[in-house]
């Protein structure tokens, strides 16, 4: 799942609580460990760094130090130094965060643009007078802007709580309209992220359950996002999606069901 893991960093006097960023997940593969920032890319963890992160995420820096001491027989001072150095590097790469920072006016612009895109997406999905293909094209455009404004994970969270008026939309029609929209009607370089967000919103408007997945492929290391309803891949190629190991998935949050058809 895409929940942020917790890492505790202890100094001699103060214990500071660290968390993996909200869009960051740890992926252990046969060819190595990676920190996957679902908005920015992938960061390979060399040597035993992946094991240190995993131990620290589960039990804090003390657990990471104990792991190094027991596994490699090094001194606690050296182990603590290694843990501190790795956490400092993760902080520099913005893969871990400490607390919540107040945003200034400039930093609030992407969030405001993301909110605007979500509001317009809600209007589109509520507009039953729009054709399915026109709705898909508009949603792909809004998703394209939103993902570049505040990232895929933040956009997914914002769009997942939209309450939509139910529309009678066929499952196969949604699937084909997204594929057609991304290949034939959309002039911008649409990616799997925009297709997944569009599919999620239309599926839920049509009364279907929708789960967004992010998966990785180890060699070469690639990532992919897609949406499914009851095992049926929508707006993507099922054989492609099945090549990726799922590292994050999102379902509709509780308390945000679509409005009744009655």
Describe this structure in words.
- There is one protein chain.
- The chain is of the alpha+beta class and 262 residues long.
- The protein has 2 domains: 6-97, Arc Repressor Mutant, subunit A, CATH 1.10.10; 108-250, no CATH class.
- Helices cover 46% and strands 21% of the residues.
- It has 8 helices and 10 strands.
- The protein has helices spanning 49-72, 76-92, 108-126, 132-150, 152-160, 171-185, 192-205, 238-241; strands spanning 6-10, 15-20, 24-29, 32-37, 41-45, 96-97, 211-218, 221-229, 232-234, 245-250.
- Strands 9-8-7-10 form a 4-stranded antiparallel sheet. The protein has a 3-stranded antiparallel sheet with strand order 1-2-6.
- Strand 1 (6-10) and strand 2 form a beta hairpin.
- Helix 3 runs antiparallel to helix 4 (132-150) and helix 4 (132-150) crosses helix 6 (171-185).
- It starts with 5 loop residues before the first strand and ends in a 12-residue tail after the last strand.
Question: How would you sum up this structure in a few lines?
Answer:
The chain is of the alpha+beta class and 262 residues long. 46% of the residues lie in helices and 21% in strands.
């Amino acid at each position: 799942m895409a929940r942020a893991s917790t890492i505790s960093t202890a100094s001699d006097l103060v214990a500071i609580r660290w968390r993996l960023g909200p869009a960051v997940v740890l992926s252990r593969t046969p060819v190595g460990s990676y920190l996957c920032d679902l908005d920015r890319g992938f960061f390979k963890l060399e040597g035993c760094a992946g094991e240190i992160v995993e131990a620290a995420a589960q039990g804090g820096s003390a657990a990471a130090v104990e792991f190094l001491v027991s596994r490699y027989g090094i001194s606690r001072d050296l182990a603590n130094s290694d843990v501190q150095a790795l956490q400092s590097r993760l902080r520099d790469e913005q893969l871990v965060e400490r607390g919540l920072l107040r945003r200034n006016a400039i930093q609030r612009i992407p969030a405001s643009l993301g909110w605007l895109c979500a509001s317009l997406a809600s209007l589109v999905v509520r507009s039953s007078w729009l054709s399915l293909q026109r709705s898909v094209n508009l949603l792909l455009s809004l998703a394209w802007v939103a993902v570049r404004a505040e990232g895929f994970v933040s956009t997914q969270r914002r769009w997942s709580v939209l309450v939509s008026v139910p529309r009678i939309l066929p499952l196969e029609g949604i699937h084909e309209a997204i594929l057609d929209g991304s290949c034939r009607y959309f002039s911008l370089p649409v990616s799997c992220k925009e297709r997944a967000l569009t599919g999620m919103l239309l599926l839920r408007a049509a009364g279907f359950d929708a789960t967004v997945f992010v998966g990785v492929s180890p060699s070469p290391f690639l990532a992919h996002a897609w949406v499914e309803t009851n095992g049926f891949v929508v707006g993507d190629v099922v054989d492609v999606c099945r090549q990726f190991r799922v590292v994050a998935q999102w379902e509709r949050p509780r308390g945000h069901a679509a409005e009744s058809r009655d």
